[in-house]
Amino acid sequence: MEKLLMDAFEKLQKREHLLRVTRDQMGLGRITKEEFKNREEQILGRYALTDAEQRAYDLHHRMTQHKRRG
Fold first, then answer.
1. Which pLDDT tens digit goes with each residue over 7-37?
2. What's the whole-model pTM score?
3. Which parts of the chain are beta strand (E)?
């Protein structure tokens, strides 16, 4: 379970970093909006969580939310 959670976090971190870089490139006019959409689609597909990783992440999220509330 912990390996799945770590894999999920790693994918999410890489995905967010690459999306931020791509947004910055579009904002600076280095790539077109069409190129941005293509890259975004590739990034989201490449770093999509598997069902097991998603379940591990959701469980972790629920547990941490429960700890914060009470």
1. 999 999 999 999 999 999 999 999 999 999 9
2. 0.84
3. none
pLDDT in tens, 40-50: 999 999 999 99
Nearest to 60 by CA among 4, 10, 16, 13: 4
Residue 10: name the closest of 41, 2, 21 by CA. 2
Per-residue CA distances from 27 to 17, 18, 21, 22, 33 (Å):
15, 14, 10, 9, 9
Residue type for 68, please? R
C-alpha separations of 69 from 55, 63, 64 in Å: 21, 10, 9
| CA dist 26 → 22, 30, 49, 65 (Å) | 6, 6, 25, 35
